[in-house]
Design goal:
The termini are far apart. The chain has strands spanning 6-11, 16-21, 31-36, 39-52, 58-66. The chain has no helices and 5 strands. The mean pLDDT is 87. 7% of the residues are buried. It has one domain. Strands 2-1-5-4-3 form a 5-stranded mixed β-sheet, with no helix packed on it.
Length: 67
């Protein structure tokens, strides 16, 4: 069974948009559609940072800017 890791999506200023689960981490330059307040907004991934998490997994913090 695949683990369901937690990752974070943040604005460039470190403002947290949402926490997401899954093994797939967006890459720099990719476009994301994120829902905020019932509306979808398009963002571009500008940076991804990784940190070791308990259990040998990596926690990804994905930084985005409006596209």
């Amino acid at each position: 069974m695949l683990s369901s890791s937690l990752h974070r999506i943040c604005h460039e200023s470190w403002e947290l948009i949402q926490v997401f689960r899954g093994p797939t981490i967006p890459r720099e330059g990719e476009l994301l559609l994120l829902e905020q307040g019932g509306q979808e907004t398009k963002y571009r991934v500008i940076r991804v940072m990784y940190k070791a998490a308990p259990g040998g997994e990596l926690l990804a913090t994905v930084f985005v800017a409006p596209a």
